[in-house]
Design a protein that fits this description.
The complex is a heterodimer of chains A (about 190) and B (about 1000). Chain A contains three helices and eleven strands, in the order βββαβββββαβββα. Chain A has about 190 residues and is of the alpha+beta class. Chain A folds into two domains: about 90 residues, Gyrase A, domain 2, CATH 3.30.1360.120; about 70 residues, Alpha-Beta Plaits. By secondary structure, chain B is of the alpha+beta class. Chain B has seven domains: about 160 residues, 2Fe-2S iron-sulphur cluster binding domain, sarcosine oxidase, alpha subunit, N-terminal domain (Ubiquitin-like (UB roll), Roll), CATH 3.10.20.440; about 190 residues, FAD/NAD(P)-binding domain (3-Layer(bba) Sandwich); about 110 residues, FAD/NAD(P)-binding domain (3-Layer(bba) Sandwich); about 80 residues, Orthogonal Bundle (Arc Repressor Mutant, subunit A), CATH 1.10.10; about 150 residues, 2-Layer Sandwich (Gyrase A, domain 2); about 90 residues, Alpha-Beta Plaits; about 100 residues, Elongation Factor Tu (Ef-tu), domain 3 (Beta Barrel). Chain B is elongated and about 110 Å long. Chain B starts with 9 loop residues before the first strand and ends with a helix. The chains are: A alpha+beta (about 190), B alpha+beta (about 1000). Chain B: One of its GO terms (molecular function) is sarcosine oxidase activity. Chain B: This is Sarcosine oxidase subunit alpha family protein. Chain B: Pfam families: FAD_oxidored (PF12831), Fer2_4 (PF13510), GCV_T (PF01571), GCV_T_C (PF08669), SO_alpha_A3 (PF17806).
């Protein structure tokens, strides 16, 4: 056996080399959510799919603009008739009632945390992100500057933001601009 | 000059700044206008057309005269209102529209030519010769007229956009707005108060009103302090609400840093807000209007309310001997305030015969008007015309008031028209003009302080109730409640020019001229005279102008009507509206996982939609892109090439009806496709034209992956959603984009299998992976997918792994390809390869071509329906004489082909009438050694072998070509299947 090169692949995260970053009181960090799976119940199977999800992973299918579960295993409403299961490898029982699609590598996942995180988002997102309206467990598919994304409140001062993986650099750029604008106001 | 013990400025903090390179001193709290007036500088600008010397007219954002340029270099900002710009140390302000200097302006010669420069002058004078307008007249006129200019250089100032939400938006923080905020705030409502000034209080800061036995400004400050302590109330100063839009959306411009000497890192100059409010209270106050009389535009002539504002707010007496002229009781306050402050009042002139004047210490002229003025660069005297004839009054400042116009603008932004109120001789908002918005206070015609406070309170109470809340008892403070007495006076008759629109130099005479020439509609008059069309939008002149028009046309004011108030209320820089879109913020940048490696390899990037794709990978010694491209084509034809194709859209489709769904969206059949196989599909729009094409793989009985072109990925996704949600909701099918999930690479060429077998965990062969096979694979233990498909016409595969491994896989594939005498190839080579093979892209399926045109008519299955089938079968869509796809090869001495060139018969003139088609794609084929092209030619396939002319009129190239089949390399597909 001579000269047979070993095939090796190295994984690279979407925001590698770009994050973490702190501007003022806000920190933007990349987060590994584990396995991401879109769960789209088949026709008439919403209830059954929700039960299967509860059985297998402990959370119901979220209603529109809501996220269920907790850290390590979350189901985030992801659009019409769809949730994103974030964390566990989906149980095969789910395939009976819903279309499952692996999206683990499709999204750049970041958290935005800090007291003025809402103010940062107010510069990019045309949705009322204030705690009184957008509570923990609320989620939205919306515009982030000029990108499509998903935002979920995961804490009093922290948000989970998902954007297309290929646009990770733009996501970081746009958030940085907004963070600087907020920090400059003190 | 300054008046002691007056004003809301901080005299312990002097500020130095420059105006036209001369140093001036003011105090913190001053605007450029107040500081210049304090220094006795009355001349601040030149007018637009006649270059008349002008001073400040107002003390607010409606200022038409005192426009200045702030800053120097790339960031210089023109047309800044001196009444709005706050001074700070180092502020560098320049006058505009004057040369060589403000005082000695050569273009003021225009003023002597005024008899020739009236309304309609341009239209009548510069009619001929026709070509001269664009080339001579307009450039010359534009140079002579005008305002400040941008630098023309890249401005690095940062601007910002932001969104805000509230239950109640209060626009304006004068007595009405503050009272409304207090009532709503105490009731716990989510309130946002927006005011354009640096301090809230509105007219309370400019007048000597007393509220609850304390100065009005102190009452305002106390209310603001209370509001600041409420968690449910947000206060925004230096912010102007500029527009009212659908569904409770308001635009607002915040001046964030323009008042600061030093800007923090990343701080924006301005922020453009979009505010969404469930309810809004408009408390925008009123704007005082001038009276038109001869030469009423001299520096030193200003609004009476502005004179009081400079005196009371900034402690500045705008003159040493001030005359006051008005048609209402409110103007009288000016004289009494001035006398109390120790400023000499030259006289109070009131046009009304029975005017009651209470103040003392100045001469009073009732039944009198100001009929003219003197003073070149500043007022020296006025001509008073009374019952006993003319006499001159010496004065260096005239405070005039023609009454107040409620600031109704925002209520008209959604097509509302204001209502005329005879008693105040002004327009007020028509209720319901903007859904969810009510007007309160002076903007609604309530002019006394007590009435404003009451109106603000009542409006807030109604909103609180409407929103389901409860108000606590808030008692109304005591305040003046003087009746507003006015008798309309728009223009003083007489000779000379009496200005209406100061900024655009429109006079009473111009408006009358318009009426004479039958521009009787107020909209026509506006456009003929340019009344109200300057940057101030005629805030203090529109009503007077239409009153003059009404008079000239013998109609009443309501009958004459107003012009349309449109957003923005005050000028908004485009930079603010488009904030964030400079440089990298212009559009999202979409990078493939191999991007960094491609850049490392020196590949220039080509934008494909939002994606960036490598054009080619240059090697040392290559001097042109063609050399690299030819080499890369050769890799694929002779050895093996590697190309990132992740940008193609990938849609995961699942469900019991997935196959039926595909049958419906594609022209050809997918339900018959076996699991583990791929099929090329063609998709039509509903109008029968080709929408997109691509391959779809069947991964399972109910599981497909569709591939779209890079450019149309979004469109196809939207189309599928439309088809599923609207046309065929009964289909049990689910789909989602997986474009980003997979890093996919084409491995193409005769040695492609050899390369793959070097890296795949399980080797493949001809039988296990024949042409158009697909399935699971793995590389270094990482599960992926392998498709045997080819866009190059060679034996080729596409291998896909989860994106996190994309960069690593690309490096590996390129390295292995290089060891097999191949390497990476970019978009240029990819394009050449597909043209050689006659494969279409959106250059061919550009939206106007049909399946018939591209030679794919037989791909529309006769056994089933599909989107676009019926429309594609229309007679004209299958006419053999349509422009249809063919190949081209040069046969004459000229060998060059260009895309976009048109096709003509040999011997026919290359004119539109003889057009026989056009070239869509061209390439130099290194495989064939000459240029090749794809074109749509009338009758296409029936012309094979014919020689035609291809003429590129833009590049001036003409080539004789032979019409041939569009597949140049391996027409029978032996290499692909190999």
């Amino acid at each position: 056996m001579e000269d047979v090169p070993v095939v090796e692949l190295v994984a690279k995260s979407p925001c590698a080399g770009l994050l973490p970053m702190t501007v003022g009181e806000v920190t933007l960090s990349e987060v590994d959510l584990g396995v991401l799976t879109s769960v789209a119940p088949f026709k008439g199977q919403r209830k059954a799919a929700s039960e299967a999800l509860k059985e297998a992973h402990g959370m119901a299918l979220p209603a529109p603009n809501r996220a269920t579960g907790r850290e390590q295993a979350r189901a985030i409403w992801f659009g019409r008739d769809m949730a994103l299961l974030a964390g566990p490898l989906p149980d095969t029982s789910l395939t009976r009632t819903a279309a499952l699609t692996d999206q683990s590598d499709a999204w750049a996942c970041v958290t935005l945390a800090g007291r003025p995180a809402e103010d940062v988002l107010a510069r990019l997102v045309p949705v009322d992100m204030r705690a009184a309206h957008f509570k923990r467990g609320h989620t939205v598919r919306t515009q982030i500057m000029h990108m499509n994304g998903s935002i979920t409140r995961i804490g009093a001062e922290s948000f989970l933001i998902l954007a297309f993986r290929a646009m990770a650099a733009t996501l970081v750029h746009d958030l940085k601009q907004a963070m600087e604008g907020v920090a400059a106001r003190g | 000059m300054r008046v002691d013990d007056k004003g809301l400025i901080d005299r312990s903090r002097p500020v130095r700044f420059q105006f036209d390179t001369i140093g001036y001193s003011g105090f913190e709290g001053d605007t450029v206008a107040s500081a210049l007036l304090a220094n006795g500088q009355r001349l601040m600008g030149r007018s637009f057309k006649y270059h008349r010397p002008r001073g400040v007219l107002t003390a607010g954002s409606e200022e038409p005269n005192a426009l200045v340029t702030v800053g120097r270099g790339a960031a210089q900002e023109p047309n800044v209102r001196a009444t709005v710009q706050e001074i700070h140390s180092g502020l560098d302000v320049r006058s505009q529209n004057a040369w060589p200097s403000l005082k000695t302006d050569v273009m003021s010669l225009n003023d002597l030519a005024w008899p020739f420069l009236g309304a309609g002058f341009y239209y009548k004078t510069f009619m001929w010769p026709k070509a001269f307008w664009e080339k001579l007249y307009e450039p010359v006129i534009r140079r002579a007229a005008g305002l400040g200019a941008l630098s023309g250089r890249h401005n690095r100032d940062k601007y910002e956009r932001a969104y805000a939400f509230c239950d109640l938006l209060i626009i304006g923080a004068g007595p009405a707005g503050l009272m409304a905020a207090l009532v709503a705030g105490r009731a716990g409502v989510d309130v946002l108060v927006v005011d354009e000034d640096r301090v809230m209080g509105g007219r309370l800061n400019a007048e000597t009103y007393v509220i609850d036995a304390e100065p009005g400004s102190a009452w305002a400050a106390a209310v603001v302090a209370e509001l600041q302590g409420m968690a449910n109330v947000r206060l925004m100063t230096r912010t102007t609400v500029t527009g009212a839009y659908d569904q409770g959306t308001y635009a607002a411009l915040e001046r964030v840093s323009s008042h600061l000497p030093e800007r923090a890192d990343g701080a924006p100059l301005e922020t453009f807000w979009r505010i969404v409010a469930r309810r809004a209270i408009l408390a925008s106050g009123a704007l005082e209007r001038p009276v038109a009389f001869a030469d009423n535009d001299r520096p030193g002539i200003m609004m009476a309310g502005a004179v009081r504002a400079y005196l009371n707010r900034w402690g500045v007496a705008p003159g040493q001997r001030v005359a006051v002229f008005g048609n209402n009781d409110d103007a009288h306050r000016t004289a009494t305030d001035l006398v109390e402050a120790g400023v000499e009042v030259a006289g109070l002139i009131d046009s009304r015969p029975g005017a009651q004047v209470t103040g003392t210490g100045f001469p009073v002229y009732t039944s009198s008007v100001v009929a003219g003025s003197t003073g070149r660069h500043g007022l020296t005297g006025i001509a008073v015309q009374g019952p006993n004839g003319h006499h001159r009054v010496e004065a260096d400042c005239l405070a005039m008031s023609g009454g107040w116009n409620p600031t109704v603008h925002l209520t008209c932004h959604m097509n509302g028209r204001p209502t005329w109120r005879e008693d105040i001789a002004g327009f007020v908002p028509t209720p319901g003009s903007v859904p969810g918005l009510v007007a309160a206070g002076a903007c609604n015609g309530d002019f006394s302080t007590a009435a404003c406070l009451a109106a603000g309170s009542a409006a807030a109470k109604a909103v609180v109730k409407d929103l389901g809340g409860k108000t606590t008892r808030v008692s109304l403070p005591d305040a003046e409640d003087k009746a507003y007495q006015i008798a309309p006076l728009w223009a003083v008759p007489g000779k000379g020019r009496a200005w209406l629109d100061f900024q655009n130099d429109v006079t009473v005479k111009d408006v009358k001229q318009a009426a004479t020439e039958n521009f009787r509609s107020v909209e026509h008059m506006k456009r003929y005279t340019t009344q109200g069309m300057a940057t101030d939008q005629g805030k203090n002149s529109n009503v007077a102008a239409l009153a003059v028009l009404a008079d000239a046309t013998g109609r009443a004011i309501p009958e004459t009507g107003t012009t349309t108030f449109r957003p923005p209320y005050t000028p908004v820089s485009i930079a603010a509206m488009g904030a964030g879109a400079q440089g990298a913020g212009f559009a999202p940048q979409r990078y493939t996982t191999s991007h960094a490696v491609s850049v490392e390899m020196g590949a220039p990037m080509i934008e494909a939609g939002l994606w960036y794709r490598p054009g080619y990978f240059p090697r040392k010694g290559e001097t042109t892109w063609r050399q690299a491209c030819d080499r890369e084509v050769e890799y694929v034809r002779e050895a093996v090439g590697v190309c990132d194709v992740s940008t193609l859209g990938k849609i995961d489709i699942q469900g019991p009806d997935a196959a039926a769904f595909l049958d419906f969206v594609y022209t050809n059949t997918f339900s018959t496709l076996k699991v583990g196989r791929v099929r090329y599909g063609l998709m039509l729009r509903e109008d029968g034209h080709v929408m997109d094409d691509g391959t779809t793989a069947r991964l399972g009985e109910q599981h497909f992956v569709m591939t779209t072109t890079t450019a149309a990925a979004g469109n196809v996704m939207r189309h599928l959603e439309f088809v599923h949600q609207v046309l065929r909701p009964e289909f049990d099918v689910r789909f989602t984009s997986v474009t980003e999930q997979w890093a996919q690479f084409a491995v193409a060429g005769p040695r492609s299998r050899e390369l793959l077998n070097d890296i795949l965990d399980a080797p493949i062969d001809k039988d296990s992976w024949p042409f158009m096979a697909c399935g699971e694979t793995s590389v270094a233990g990482i599960a992926g997918r392998l498709f045997r498909i080819s866009f190059s016409g060679e034996h080729a595969y596409e291998v896909a792994l989860p994106s996190r491994y994309g960069e690593s896989l690309f490096r590996l594939l390129v390295k292995r390809a290089e060891s097999l005498s191949g390497g990476a190839y970019g978009m240029e080579a990819l394009n050449v390869l597909r043209i050689e093979k006659g494969h279409i892209t959106h250059a061919e399926i550009h939206g106007r071509t049909t399946a018939f045109d591209i030679g794919f008519a037989r791909m529309i299955s006769t056994k089933k329906d599909c989107i676009g089938k019926t429309m594609a079968a229309r007679e004209g869509m299958v006419d053999p004489m349509r422009e249809r796809l063919v190949g081209l090869k040069p046969v004459g001495p000229v060998k060059q082909l260009t895309a976009g060139a048109h096709v003509f018969e040999r011997g026919a003139a290359a004119i539109r009438e003889n057009d026989r088609g056009y070239v869509t794609s061209v390439a130099f084929s290194p495989t064939l050694g000459h240029s090749i092209g794809l074109a749509f030619v009338r009758g296409g396939p029936e012309r094979l072998g014919d020689v035609m002319r291809v003429v590129d009129h833009l590049r001036d190239i003409e080539t004789d070509v032979e019409i041939c089949a569009p597949v140049f390399v391996d027409p029978d597909g032996g290499r692909t299947r190999g």
